[in-house]
Design goal:
Helix content is 31%, strand content 27%. The chain is α/β, with parallel strands linked by helices. The chain has two domains: 138 residues, 3-Layer(aba) Sandwich (Rossmann fold), CATH 3.40.50.720; 105 residues, 2-Layer Sandwich (Dihydrodipicolinate Reductase, domain 2), CATH 3.30.360. Strands 3-2-1-4-5-6-12 form a seven-stranded parallel sheet, sandwiched between helices. The chain has a five-stranded mixed sheet with strand order 8-9-7-10-11, with helices on one face. Helix 1 packs across helix 6 and helix 4 runs parallel beside helix 5. It starts with a strand and ends in a 6-residue tail after the last strand. The structure holds NADPH dihydro-nicotinamide-adenine-dinucleotide phosphate and the ligand O=C(O)C1=N[C@H](C(=O)O)C[C@H](O)C1. NADPH dihydro-nicotinamide-adenine-dinucleotide phosphate binds next to helix 1.
């Protein structure tokens, strides 16, 4: 049995993770963390990790980058494994996550779906064949409640493509404020926000008279919740280190 605490328990992903864990026999949610306390049917919610009455086997975080320091303090001092699904971190925060993973198990990915992680591999392959001659643009679409842009997944895809191309590209987020043609070294990053779109990502390779688009669409948040719960059950028994979806396929 894996005892889970959800950080961001009152949020959309928090609810989906609770529902996913509730349907399984090998794990259960024992508590939540969120900005205000609200009693769920089955578990209590606390405002900070320090208030947790017992140490869980693993914490799953789908809250906000603002909760990172408190979570890392708690997980490092108690040796608690941490699954991080939230997005919007600064480079400095990502460095802190990597550093913590030298002492505790940390599972960190901007997208918990298996499909996106295959898309990353396909995009790397396409970049290795087309990257020198085709223009590369990434388009992501999400619901109107999303705070960060571009999405963590779009950044993950761009980084994977760029690393394949020896980091020869730079990212362009805005073409409104300049009057000039596109440079070969650009990866254009485009964020669309509207309605209840769950999450769509296109990596577009545009060449002379031909275009290849690699595309992924999530139909519900349950797909991310399933990945996060699988990650938590996996992480509980791992040594310190940084893990991602490649460990779950
Ligand atoms: N890796 C992946 O596969 C996926 C990642 N995500 C990411 O997960 C995050 C959450 O998404 P979603 O559930 O849709 O967002 P929600 O806004 O619905 O949920 C976030 C919850 O966290 C709470 N919260 C905010 N700040 C803190 C804090 N400092 N400490 C504790 N709780 C806090 C919010 O409270 P309040 O509402 O009061 O601010 C809210 O209840 C986002 O960063 C999103 O991009 C989402 C889906 C998949
Ligand atoms: O905020 C969301 O909803 C999502 N965020 C993640 C991201 O920023 O990449 C993953 C998924 O697309 C849903």
């Amino acid at each position: 049995m894996t005892n889970i605490v959800i950080c961001g328990a009152n949020g959309k992903m928090g609810h989906n993770i609770y529902n996913c864990a509730d349907e399984r026999d090998d794990c259960r949610v024992i508590a939540g963390i969120d900005l205000y306390t609200k009693q769920y049917a089955d578990f209590p919610i606390f405002e900070t990790p320090a208030q947790l009455p017992e140490k869980p086997d693993v914490i799953i975080d789908f809250s906000n980058p603002a909760s990172l320091d408190g979570l890392l303090d708690y997980c490092l001092s108690t040796g608690t494994p941490l699954v991080i699904g939230a997005t919007g971190y600064t480079d400095e925060q990502i460095a802190k996550i990597r550093s913590a993973a030298q002492q505790i198990p940390v599972f960190f990915t901007f997208n918990m779906s298996l499909g996106i992680n295959l898309l990353v591999e396909l995009a790397k392959k396409a970049a290795s064949v087309l990257g020198d001659s085709f223009d590369i643009e990434i388009v992501e679409k999400h619901h109107n409640q999303k705070i960060d842009a571009p999405s963590g997944t779009a950044i993950m895809l761009a980084n994977a493509v760029n690393e394949t191309l020896d980091n020869s590209k730079h990212y362009v987020y805005d073409r409104h404020s300049r009057r000039q043609k596109r440079e070969k070294s650009e990866i254009g990053m485009h964020a669309i926000r509207g309605g209840t779109i769950v999450g769509e990502h296109d990596v577009i390779f545009a060449g002379h008279d031909e275009v290849i688009t690699l595309s992924h669409s999530a139909a519900s948040k349950a797909v991310f919740a399933a990945g996060a719960v699988n990650a938590a059950v996996f992480l509980k028994d791992q040594p310190a280190g940084l893990y991602d979806m490649s460990k779950l396929v």
